[in-house]
Amino acid sequence: QVQLVESGGGLVQPGGSLRLSCAASGSIFSIYDMDWYRQAPGKQRELVATITSGGSTNYADSVKGRFTISRDNTKNTVYLQMNSLKPEDTAVYYCHADVTNIGRARTTYWGRGTQVTVSS
After folding, report:
1. Tens of pLDDT along 50-78?
2. Which residues, at least 6 apart from 51, have a Cβ–Cβ distance to it below 8 Å?
3. What is the mean pLDDT of residues 73-97?
4. pLDDT score recorded for residue 70
5. Which of 65, 96, 102, 107 is the most buried if burial means most Cβ atoms within 10 Å?
């Protein structure tokens, strides 16, 4: 089994910054894409940012220029640096990963989420 555990959420004022982390652990053989999604109250879950195993990145238009996704393959960890935060960034942020386990089965996994609240 594979687990994804997010950390780093919290309450921040508009214009502030937060850094989210997501560590993958368990029976991992390799990890392909790692992503951050978010879900605000009453809204559908949306893709925020993606990073491939080779380091290529892609962002939602709403966060381009403000958020940066990165990963440390030696630690099976993905990060999301969030700057210039806005109230509309308030949401539960979820980590998602495409993983091949030790048994060579390929499956996607979700973390449980971490709350980010942007408010004065």
Report:
1. 999 999 999 999 999 999 999 999 999 99
2. 33, 34, 35, 57, 69, 70, 71, 78
3. 97
4. 98
5. 96
* Rounded Cα gap, residues 72 and 53, in angstroms: 10
106-120 confidence digits (pLDDT tens): 999 999 999 999 999
